[in-house]
Specification:
The protein is of the alpha+beta class. The protein contains twelve helices and 26 strands. Helix 2 crosses helix 4. GO terms for molecular function: acetylornithine deacetylase activity; dipeptidase activity; metallopeptidase activity; zinc ion binding.
């Protein structure tokens, strides 16, 4: 039996060198005008072309699908199995100690935007395919490694891809944690907008619907400085004044950002700013929104949405806030279990708004990703888990579900399989200082090689 872990070690230098190249492409979604074939902007297209070029240089078959996604492929046969990751990244934001688009190395730690979400894990799967090919391992099915370009901004990539390509017999996405995640909540983005009295107040926070921002900027707020300082201390925030020469024009509330699927790990400044305005008497018409979006209604209970299912409970998290010229725009990231859905969520929220004097606000649905569940005792799911245990010796962490949303829901017969290990060796996805462990990535290459080979022979 081939020692996959030993073979993976041979790719250590290549992995670091290639990851450095890929990280240097700031593949953040852009809706700016771009040539045909670049639906997500020039930088995402560049990152996808880099991926294709690596496959081409390695001698694999490659295919670009209208700029939405691209794959490299090895083997023959009617069916295929795949690892489907993404090459787009969230904006870097502030708080980095170095250039987020230059791979930094501190001992075993690799740092940069996209290191763990998701360029590093996807690159590990690509190198795993090279092991299978280089060792001449027999296969009953083709194997594809697929890179999407719009995971962070709406999943248009994978949906378009499967309009052009058949779905895999078995698949996984390397876009969360080991060992195996067999179920995930649905994800819904809502936009709430409406007019408020124009007091000159200006608020701006957040950039991406699925990322809790690290700060919110408030201008032209007449809050008493002593009350402001007291609030900041009580809410475990930091405060940064914005000055024009010697005059204070505004301030920045600094909390702790993070992924919107894990609000309990953040200190959301969007929630806090609602509470702040209420506490200092600046809320005005916004005061009716404070109980809804100030942090005490994350389970949606006030809307009658506090649901619990096999994939967990519903969470409702504000991530983007704009208030300017008397116009409010608020983005919500909602994660919901399999026993509810977009129609019920919209109906109950609109009913609440209509019955509580908030009919002037509109509620509009944006991207919606359905929940997903694969039985944990499926033979192929257990095979993935057993490969993980073989390489790690870890039996403490079971197959589980997640609140995050991944490509698995769009792939059909698919689960999440890595690329983070449950030992804290990677972290800060969607935050400053995103990092992963070099040693862990090499381990992942071996795991992916054996797992893809096993799936390719089922």
């Amino acid at each position: 039996m081939l020692n996959f872990a030993a073979e993976a070690e041979k790719y250590r230098q290549e992995f670091v060198a290639l990851l450095d190249q890929w990280i240097r492409i700031p593949s953040v979604y852009s809706d700016a005008a771009a040539p045909a074939g670049m639906p997500f902007g020039r930088e995402v297209a560049q990152a996808m072309e880099w991926f294709i070029s690596q496959g081409r240089e390695a001698g694999f078959a490659t295919k670009a699908v209208d700029g939405y996604a691209a794959h490299v492929e090895y083997g023959s046969g009617g069916e295929y199995v795949c690892a489907f990751g993404h090459c787009d990244v969230v904006p870097a934001g502030g708080g980095w100690s170095g250039d987020p688009f230059r791979l930094a190395k501190q001992g075993d730690r690799l740092i940069g935007r996209g290191v763990i979400d998701d360029k590093g894990p996807l690159l590990a799967a690509f190198l795993a395919l090279k092991i299978i090919r280089d060792q001449g391992l027999p296969l009953k099915r083709r194997i594809r490694i697929v890179a999407g370009g719009d995971e962070e901004s709406g999943f248009r990539c994978i949906r378009h891809y499967f309009q052009r390509e058949p779905k895999p017999a078995y698949g996984f996405t390397p876009d969360a944690k080991f060992p195996v995640i067999n179920g995930e909540k649905g994800g819904l983005t809502l936009e709430i907008s409406g007019g408020v009295a124009d007091s000159g107040l200006l608020i701006r926070g957040g950039e991406v619907h699925n990322t809790i921002p690290g700060s919110v900027t408030v201008m032209n707020c007449s809050a008493d400085p002593a009350m402001l300082e007291q609030f900041v201390k009580a809410e475990n925030l930091n405060l940064e004044y914005i000055r024009d020469e010697n005059t204070v024009r505004g301030f920045r509330l600094i909390g702790q950002g993070g992924h919107s699927s894990k609000p309990e790990q953040a200190n959301n400044p969007v929630e806090k700013v609602f509470r702040l305005l209420a506490s200092v008497g600046e809320a005005g018409r916004l005061k009716d929104l404070v109980p809804l979006f100030g942090g005490d209604n994350r389970d949606g209970m006030l809307f009658g949405l506090d649901q619990q299912g096999r994939c967990g409970s519903l969470t409702l998290v504000p991530t983007i806030l704009r208030l300017e010229g008397g116009r409010l725009n608020l983005t919500l990231s909602i994660r919901y279990p399999e026993n509810t859905g977009m129609a019920e969520i919209l109906e109950k929220m609109r009913r609440y708004f209509n019955h509580h004097g908030l009919a002037g606000y509109s509620i509009t649905a944006g991207n919606n990703k359905r929940p997903h569940y694969v039985e944990a005792d499926s033979s192929w799911v257990k095979k993935l888990y057993n490969v993980y245990v073989k390489h790690t010796g870890d039996t403490r962490h079971p197959i589980r579900v997640t609140s995050a949303g991944t490509y698995a829901a769009e792939m059909g017969n698919a689960v999440v399989f890595g690329g983070e290990f449950p030992d804290g060796s990677a972290g800060n996805a969607h935050m400053a200082g995103e990092y992963g462990s070099e040693a862990a990535f090499i381990k992942a290459i071996g795991i992916y090689a054996e797992a893809l080979w096993e799936l390719g022979n089922l």
